[in-house]
Design a protein that fits this description.
single chain, mainly alpha
């Protein structure tokens, strides 16, 4: 079976990994949560991002991807929903006036604590509503994967991509949780969160304009 589908899998895995490592909303929210709340919350955010891929896998496998692909107005709805969520996140960061004094390992000393469930749900929604992920599955998954590939193999592809997404952003969380890196960002205080908020809103505006 590996001999039959190995090349297809390797091609999909390579393209997917290259798409994952490109900085985007997933990267930004992982870095922000790691810097502010520590590696545990950053890693849980990463797991949520990985789980969010399951939404794209699901609608692709059940055939909804083809419907979306052939109806541009549906794609526009996806883009606008993603944009609105990014604006929601960005505006929340711009309005956040809480202290930036955080312990170098976890969130001890923070005036605001992010629950594990909240961290997971933020990661999940950021990816599930990420139009970049939607476009990837519509344009790449449906192109590189033969329609005749058995469903169980396609499900394996989807599980693999969920795992790789989660693992990559856990690595990002670990890297940005290192004291020398984290403290550098924390020293920026409110400027760091304002920057991330502005980045989210810029992403959102770009999505809205490309949907018009």
């Amino acid at each position: 079976m590996w001999a039959q589908y190995g090349i297809e899998f390797l091609g999909l895995a390579l393209v997917h990994f290259l798409a994952v490592i490109l900085p985007g909303p997933d990267f930004a929210i992982t870095v922000r949560n790691t810097i502010r709340f520590g590696v545990r919350i950053g890693s849980i955010t990463a797991i949520g991002i990985g789980a969010g891929i399951s939404i794209h896998v699901f609608y692709t496998l059940v055939g909804l991807g083809l419907i979306i692909q052939h109806h541009t107005w549906l794609m526009s709805i996806f883009r606008i929903c993603g944009a609105l969520y990014l604006i929601y996140l960005g505006w929340g960061l711009l309005r956040n006036h809480s202290s930036s004094v955080i312990d170098s390992n976890e969130n001890i000393g923070s005036t605001q604590i992010l629950s594990q469930w909240k961290a997971f749900s933020i990661g999940f929604m950021t990816n599930a509503l990420n139009p970049k992920a939607t476009i990837f599955f519509l344009a790449i998954f449906t192109t590189l994967v033969n329609p005749q590939t058995p469903m169980k193999i396609q499900i394996f592809y989807g599980i693999w991509m969920c795992m790789i997404n989660a693992l990559w952003f856990i690595v990002v969380a670990v890297l940005f949780s290192q004291p020398i890196v984290r403290n550098k960002f924390l020293s920026m205080g409110r400027k760091f969160e304002t920057f991330i908020g502005i980045v989210f809103i810029i992403f959102a505006m770009n999505l809205i304009f490309t949907s018009l």
